Amino acid sequence: MSKNYKWWVVFMLWFVCFFNYADRQAIFSVFPLLKQEMSLSDIQLGIVGAAFMWVYAGFGAIAGIVGDKFPRKTLIIGGLIFWSLVTIGTALSTNYVHLVICRALEGFGEAFYFPASMSLLSDYHSKETRSKAMSFHQSSVYAGTIAGGTVAGFMGQYYGWHTSFYLFGGLGVLLGVILLGFLKEPVRGQAEIEENTHVLFDLKQRNISDNIKQVFSKPIVWILVTVFVGANFVASIFLTWMPSFLYKKFNMSLSMAGLNATFYLQMASVLGVISGGFLADKLAKRYFGGRMITQSIGLLMGVPFIFLAGWTLSIPILIVALIGFGYFKGLYDANIWASLHDVVKPKNRATAVGFMNSIGWFGGGIAPIAIAYASTKYGMSASISATSVLYLIVGLLLIVGISKFMKQPKS
C-alpha cells in the first residue's frame, strides 16, 4: 500500500459522505410536490422529515459500538448500498406510510457511516494530518447538501419528484460496488503504531460496557458532547427554518429563499472547514488541545453573525451574516471528530463517535420544534438571533474545558 493511499481513502470516503447528505437532503426540495400528489398536511410532512432524524439518532450509539467490533469497510460499503437502495425505494413510494418507512430506514442505514468512517480515517491519519483529512472529508457534507437540494428541486420541477431519488440511489449503489475493490481495512490503532506511540493505547477489546465507561471517563469528552449538542441545535434551526424565514421576512420566492438559505452558508462552510483543518493540525503540534482551540474560535467568532442573520432588515447584510456564520461553523465542524479522537483510545473511537452523534442529533431534533414555539411568542427574527447566546455559552464552555482538562503547550 503506497504512502499516499491514506489520502485516497479520504477521496473515496468523500464521495460516500456526499451521497449520505445528498440522499437525506433531496426530499425537502420536493415537499410541495409530495404535498400535492399525496394530499399531505404540513404536520405529516414534518413527520416524514423527523422520521429520519429520530431513527438516525436512536441507532447512532449502537452503530458506534458495532463499528468497534466489526470491520469498518463492511459497515461503510454495506451502509452505502443499503441506504442507496432505500433511496430508490423512496421513489417507488405511493403514500404517506411508505414515505415514513423509507425515511426511517434511511436514517437506520446512514447511522452506521460516521462512526465507522471516522474511526477508519483516524487509523490512516495520525495527529499530524488527522484534522486536514477530516476537514476535507467534512466538505462533502456541504457539497452533498447543496447538490441534494438543488438537483432534487430541478429534476422534480421538470421530470417529476421520483427522478432524483432514482439518480442518487443508483449512483450510490454503483459507488458501493466499485469501492469493494479499492477500500482497505486498516489495523486498529495503525496511525499510533506507525508513530511508535501505541504504548499509550490499550488495543485489547473488552466488553461493551467497559468500552462505554472508558469513553466517558474523561470530563473533556462530556464537554465535547455538550458543545456538539449546542452547535447542532443552532445548525438544525438554520437548515430547517431559514428558507421559510427568508420567504416571509424578505418576500423572496420559494426558489430564491431555498438558494439563499443554503448556498452562501454551505459554500462558506467549505472554506471554513478546510481552513479549520490546516489551522488545527498546526496548533495541535504546539498544544494538546490545539484542535479544540480551533473549534472554540469558530464558535465564539460565529456569535455576531448568528445574531445579525436573525436581526437584520438588509439583504446584503444578511448575506454577509450567512457567509460569516458558515465560515466559522466550518472551523468548528472540521474538528468535531478529530478533537474527540485526541482524547479517546483507538479501540473506542467508533463507539465515541456513535454516542456523540446520537446525542447531538437528539438535541438537533428538538431545535426545529423549539424555535417554532418560541417564534409564536417572540417572532422568528428574535428567536434566531437568540440562538447566538447558545453559541456563546458552548464556546466559553469549551474554553473552560481546554484550560482545565487539556495540557498546555507541548515541550
From TrEMBL:
<keyword id="KW-0472">Membrane</keyword>
<protein>
    <submittedName>
        <fullName>Glucarate transporter</fullName>
    </submittedName>
</protein>
<dbReference type="InterPro" id="IPR044770">
    <property type="entry name" value="MFS_spinster-like"/>
</dbReference>
<feature type="transmembrane region" description="Helical">
    <location>
        <begin position="165"/>
        <end position="183"/>
    </location>
</feature>
<feature type="transmembrane region" description="Helical">
    <location>
        <begin position="380"/>
        <end position="402"/>
    </location>
</feature>
<dbReference type="Pfam" id="PF07690">
    <property type="entry name" value="MFS_1"/>
</dbReference>
<dbReference type="InterPro" id="IPR036259">
    <property type="entry name" value="MFS_trans_sf"/>
</dbReference>
<feature type="transmembrane region" description="Helical">
    <location>
        <begin position="74"/>
        <end position="92"/>
    </location>
</feature>
<keyword id="KW-0813">Transport</keyword>
<feature type="transmembrane region" description="Helical">
    <location>
        <begin position="141"/>
        <end position="159"/>
    </location>
</feature>
<feature type="domain" description="Major facilitator superfamily (MFS) profile">
    <location>
        <begin position="9"/>
        <end position="411"/>
    </location>
</feature>
<feature type="transmembrane region" description="Helical">
    <location>
        <begin position="261"/>
        <end position="280"/>
    </location>
</feature>
<feature type="transmembrane region" description="Helical">
    <location>
        <begin position="220"/>
        <end position="241"/>
    </location>
</feature>
<feature type="transmembrane region" description="Helical">
    <location>
        <begin position="43"/>
        <end position="67"/>
    </location>
</feature>
<feature type="transmembrane region" description="Helical">
    <location>
        <begin position="353"/>
        <end position="374"/>
    </location>
</feature>
<dbReference type="InterPro" id="IPR020846">
    <property type="entry name" value="MFS_dom"/>
</dbReference>
<dbReference type="InterPro" id="IPR000849">
    <property type="entry name" value="Sugar_P_transporter"/>
</dbReference>
<keyword id="KW-0812">Transmembrane</keyword>
<keyword id="KW-1133">Transmembrane helix</keyword>
<dbReference type="InterPro" id="IPR011701">
    <property type="entry name" value="MFS"/>
</dbReference>
